[in-house]
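Weekly structure sync, notes
Attendees: PL (lead), two postdocs, one rotation student
Agenda item 3: pending single-chain targets
PL asked that the sequence for the first pending target be pasted directly into the notes so everyone works from the same version. It is reproduced below exactly as submitted, 219 residues in total.
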Amino acid sequence: MNDPAAKKRLLALGVRTVPVLANGDQYIFCQNLEDVAEFVGLQGTGHTPLAPAALIAKWLVVLRAARRYIRQIPDDRLRERAIDNRDRSIRLLSHHIFRIGAAFLETAIDDIEYRTDNANVPPTEGTCTTAEEIIRYGDGVIDRLEHWWSRLEDKSCRQKVKTFYGTPPMHQLFERSTWHSAQHTRQMIAILERLGIEPSGRLSAEDLAGLPLPERVWD
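Predicted structure, written out during the meeting:
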């Protein structure tokens, strides 16, 4: 994003998406932190994933927090960039927080392969143009997640799922989706602060405990 030569280097590897970690002509997609640790020669990450029951509880807390924060964004500010160095509006970031959940459910329920762009599918033309419309979309995703979990027979989430980087246990994609939404919800807090608006009910350290989040909000 900030290195003009970076895209050329990725294309030379045959890569069309990020995050990627490369060493010479060898590379991996950085979707699994344990794979990253092995690639760089470490003996694991030292991280123990939360149990699925804890993940669903945290994910719902995060999504409901995102809903509160989006409601605070004035509609006339939604088309502003979320951050200066990336061409993504506050509107698209807000929608993306919930789209992550919808993409997960497509894989978990419908057995659709989780591809690089699944979670980045934008809202259809003319939809999610106001905060309330985005919140209604988010409400639908929250309801579907709750329904999926209540009906799920094997709550160990050890069953395999299809992704562009292999067939990991569902637990792994579940954790990644949870912290993915959480990281972007942290960014919504930063956006509200930038707009001079006090976030309604900040996520606490306890809310996010156990999720492998970056230290910085915009990493």
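Discussion points:
- The mean pLDDT is 92.
- Strands lie at 20-23, 26-29, 81-83, 86-89.
Action: rotation student to compare against the earlier draft before next sync.
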